[in-house]
Specification:
The protein is mainly beta and 106 residues long. The chain has a domain of 64 residues: Folate-binding superfamily (Folate-binding fold, 2-Layer Sandwich). 8% of the residues lie in helices and 31% in strands. It is built from one helix and six strands. It has a four-stranded antiparallel beta sheet with strand order 3-4-5-6, with no helix packed on it.
């Protein structure tokens, strides 16, 4: 079981109290009425699903009901940091050379 730190409550709580909402730091369209169907569809439905570090939006659903961001390693489930909405992450992915499907560096 994960123990997640809520930056609003300032305490660790069990993971059952939280829900992941999706990818954090998504640029919202400034003028949704001017978006084409393709642009709107990409904004609504297409998200990154990386292996490794990922910035996610979470909600403390069974607690304070406030949203916050989390940087988490999707391979190990290790939580690197939590931070409030509007703050920038201090943990960012290192520059890793791209790999082909056989795991050989390009």
């Amino acid at each position: 079981m994960l123990h997640i730190y809520c930056p609003h409550c300032a305490e660790y709580r069990e993971e059952e109290e939280f829900h992941v909402v999706g990818q954090a730091h998504i640029a919202r369209p400034l003028d949704p009425e001017a978006c084409s169907d393709q642009e709107w569809g990409e904004y609504m439905f297409f998200r990154k699903n990386p292996r490794g570090l990922h910035h996610e939006l979470w909600v403390h659903a069974a607690g304070c009901r406030k949203f916050f961001n989390m940087t988490r390693d999707t391979q190990s489930y290790e939580i690197k940091e939590v931070y409030k909405i509007g703050e920038q992450p201090s943990v960012v992915a290192d520059a890793v050379p791209p790999q082909d499907t056989l795991g050989v560096q390009s």
